[in-house]
TrEMBL record:
Keyword Transmembrane on entry: yes
Protein's UniProt name: DMT family transporter
Family, as annotated: Belongs to the EamA transporter family.
Taxonomy of the source species: Bacteria, Bacillati, Actinomycetota, Actinomycetes, Kitasatosporales
Keywords: Membrane, Transmembrane, Transmembrane helix
Length: 285
């Protein structure tokens, strides 16, 4: 069950990242985040009311609040890093986010078996290579490296926090709702500050109403990914769930190849193969 839900997480996050990347080509990134998360919050609010999720309110929701604050900061740092430095460096570095939940799992006493340890090593190596690391080229600004590491730490922290935010299905709906409301509040505040400083909130032609279905898809896919990861982490070793969930860059690369006809470099294809091998080792270990 852990492998299934963790792989579902990587699929959902990979598709959401691909969709979000396309949307930010026409609409400012902060606006994409706020609108997509706002739609997700509205849908989750209806689900919470329908399922009686409010009865699950408790101190554990503070984990969801914390995840909602950290998430937008990580995402903004990631987008800024992508704007400043080569994606071939930023993307592999961002996968270091897996170190946080894996570290938490080890701290809590999880000890993966030999097969699982081998799977973790192979899968992480595959994910890094699938990002297409640039081994040559212009030097990378220190700011780019710093922002990418902040993003990785933030994403990994969200992994760890959301796994602790609930212990039941209805409680998970409530936790995800609280996380999304906090996301919107944090992202909205950042967008307000950006506009006050001369930034742009909408594209030149005004808000692209035709993009609402795509924005809704991105927001809901992200929510679903958080939910499946929480289930995976609660029903199996966090170390395994985190590594399998971190395969989303492979999904994004394959989506870009399928829909945008982007060609995979040899090193990326090799990385995707290694990631799949690592997945099999983890699933059978």
């Amino acid at each position: 069950m852990t492998a299934f839900f963790a792989l579902a997480t990587s699929l959902l996050w990979g598709v959401a990242d691909f969709g979000g990347g396309l949307l930010t080509r026409r609409t400012p990134a902060l606006t994409v985040v706020v609108v997509s998360q706002g739609i997700a919050a509205a849908v989750l609010g209806a689900v919470v009311v329908a399922t009686g999720g409010w009865s699950e309110a408790g101190p554990q929701l503070w984990f969801a609040v914390a995840a909602g604050v950290v998430g937008p900061v990580a995402l903004f740092s990631f987008y800024k890093a992508l704007a400043l430095g080569p994606m071939g460096v930023v993307s592999p570095l961002a996968t270091l986010s897996v170190a946080v939940p894996v570290g938490v799992g080890l701290f809590l006493g999880e000890r993966p078996g030999l097969m699982q340890a081998a799977g973790i090593a192979v899968a992480v190596t595959g994910v890094v290579l699938a990002g297409g690391p640039q081994l040559r080229g212009a030097p990378v600004q220190r700011q780019t490296i710093l922002l990418t590491l902040i993003a990785a730490l933030g994403f990994g922290t969200v992994f760890a926090l959301i796994a602790e935010a609930s212990s039941s299905v209805t409680g998970l709906f409530l936790a995800l709702f609280v996380q999304r409301v906090t996301n919107v509040a944090t992202g909205g505040a950042a967008l307000y500050v950006s506009v006050r400083r001369g930034g742009v909130a909408l594209p030149e032609g005004g808000f692209l109403w035709g993009s609402l279905p795509a924005l809704a898809f991105v927001g809901l896919a992200d929510v679903a990914a958080n939910g499946t990861y929480s289930i995976a982490a609660q029903h199996g070793p966090v170390t395994v769930a985190a590594v399998l969930a971190s395969l989303y860059p492979v999904v994004t690369s394959l989506a870009a190849r399928g829909f945008l006809s982007e060609r995979l470099r040899v090193i990326q294809a090799a990385g995707a193969g290694l990631a799949l091998v690592g997945t099999l080792l983890l699933a059978t270990g």
